[in-house]
Amino acid sequence: MKRTVSLIQLIQSLTIANLVALSFALSPLPAEACTILSAPHLKDHLVGKSYDWVFEDGLVMVNKRHMQKKALLLDPTSTGAVWTSKFGSITFNQYGREFPLGGINEAGLVVEIAWLEAAKFPKADKRPTLNELQWVQYQLDQYATVRDVAAHLEDIRIARAHAPVHYLVCDASRDCLTVEFLNGKLVTHTGSKLDVQVLANDPYAAQRKALKSLQGFGGRRPLPEGTDSFARYARAAVFAHATPDSTESDTQTGLLRLFQVLASVHQNDYSKWHISYETHEGIVSWRSSSRPLIKSVKLADFDFSCHSPVKVQPVVSEGEGSISASFEDYTTEANRRMLDISLKPIANTLPPGTLDLVAEYPETLSCAD
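Structure (tokenized):
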């Protein structure tokens, strides 16, 4: 007989040890991984990411507007954020629907995440909370511009599940914002303080300062090789900080150049996805390590009404060019299959019912219309 456990009952039954184990379900394992960059000099503004990890399986999710949501919390004594999504979005997910590793919304807002070992989130207070992955979905659901995001950064608190991370947020106006938490305090860079729109795996200010020692940025040192955080940051910075180039004035040329740069910051077999977001037209392009042909979708191709089925597509799939028509209806089983892959290394450490909790969390969402 199949045992059914309610979400509330399961959360309340978890011990502190269980919460630690469950935290792995909602965030990646430790690694110096990922490089994110914005290329404002291109005719069509592109934001790119090299996602570096131990497996490449995942789902591209079409998330709906007007969905009522409450944060999934690990600590039942905290107050979860509650909101209704204003924008539809497309995201890349490995750890369950609603817990993305990055994405873009209908307004052209892009939110991407990278590992930051130095991150230290604020202590518990009375603000409503989210974990570090659902924070990405919250921003995509709520805001259209970098200015909007910046104005509301203090409204909610990130209750870290496991991963120390920082974020790059960009919008269709080519404005970008870094969001970091250092020594328990919010640290941001935007405008003239973010003249090199790149994040790797060290605090932005430290890497931007080190960049001044390199040729082309005021110093004499040559561009570093290797796969460490600064070497990747520096190579991405050369492209991100470039002046407009007539040879990269069309979208296709700029896109191919971006993918070349993402290939140059790869970490050997750990680089699993290369992703591009065209913020003005709402075009998402990607390739995976085992399926290197570039696929793309356009947000305008999808129905973001909350009454229509949620659509999904495996990140790793056959095809090339536009594949919007190949998306299929989301199912809880598809979410569970993804979690079976992403949680396999720690499956034996999870309490009974944990996969149910994460896999069935989307069923707690409701349409506000």
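The chain has nine helices and 21 strands. The first strand starts at residue 35 and ends at 39.
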